[in-house]
Amino acid sequence: QVQLVESGGGLVQAGGSLRLSCASSERTFSSYNMAWFRQAPGKERDFVAAIRWSGGTSYADSVKGRFTISRDNAKNTGYLQMNSLKPEDTAIYYCATRGWGPREDDYNYWGLGTQVTVSS
Fold it and tell me: pLDDT digit string (tens) for 71-86?
């Protein structure tokens, strides 16, 4: 069973930055892709970004140029650097692994999420 723990969320003003972390219990973390999704109140969980085990990345259009996904395989940890944050980025952010694609069903394991709130 793979456990993922997100951290780094919080309250930030519009235009600010946050870096989210996703720590995996999986020793073979480096062998699997991982992704970030987000869910705003009353909305579906949406794809944000994904990174392959080999380093290739994919982003939602809404975050391109502002967010950067990365990973440190030595630490079994993935990251999401979020810059130029907007109020519409407010959501619970989840990381996921063992899969690939822009849909929830594309991934097998999920963390419990971390809240990001962007004030205007």
Answer: 999 999 999 999 999 9
